[in-house]
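Sample log: Thymidylate kinase.
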Amino acid sequence: MNHGFITFEGIDGAGKSSHIEALAQWLRVRGREVLLTREPGGTALAERLRELLLHEPMDALTESLLVFAARRDHLRQRIEPALARGATVLCDRFTDATFAYQGGGRGFDLAVLGQLEGWVQQGRQPDLTLWFDLPPTVAARRRAAARAADRFESEDEIFFTRVREGYAARATAAPERFIRIDAEQPREAVWAQIERELQERGW
Ligand SMILES: Nc1ncnc2c1ncn2[C@@H]1O[C@H](COP(=O)(O)OP(=O)(O)O)[C@@H](O)[C@H]1O
Ligand SMILES: Cc1cn([C@H]2C[C@H](O)[C@@H](COP(=O)(O)OP(=O)(O)O)O2)c(=O)[nH]c1=O
């Protein structure tokens, strides 16, 4: 039976948060220890950096350094120890979000992001990435109905189109770990796809 590191990705409003808890339950009833966490965040330090990232104005390099600083702390304090004891880690966003938002959305240098990724992760990559993909217009409609926008969520459709392209490029570069979830479907169909994809892969 598979275990390891699963990440959830997609533009804001794609429906990730609605399914991550359901997947945690699905794994727990199958006897797995599950760590449910998120980025930026997951440790006291990283949650403080998250507050700054979501609300304080800053340039794309500062943003990139802060998300990777938060990630470093999160990996060392929580993700790596959980994987070492055999738990399954479910993380709401990880480095693909940095390539999509800072790289795609903000247009920041992908080569620099690749170097930071190498330093911070020392080769660690998710075993599986569920990419919730849908048109930015649909996601914007869902967000508008659900919550007040933070610094990223107030960006326009062009920004989210670039973020989506950033995810698509990461998926093309690592097809073995990416699963594209059709997030435009009704909730039940999204969940059915997630369950099917995991079962097919022996999770
Ligand atoms: N498949 C779906 N169809 C319609 N609305 C959805 C679907 N999945 C989630 N939603 C709604 O869209 C909003 C954003 O979902 P959320 O899970 O917070 O997205 P994310 O975590 O990806 O930003 C919420 O109000 C949620 O109830
Ligand atoms: C992990 C990560 C997130 N982000 C952004 C994307 C999201 O808009 C925001 C927070 O993500 P998220 O937790 O999905 O927001 P919410 O709680 O509102 O659903 O941070 C980056 O820009 N780069 C990153 O590396």
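Observation: The first strand starts at residue 5 and ends at 10.
Observation: The chain has one domain: 5-198.
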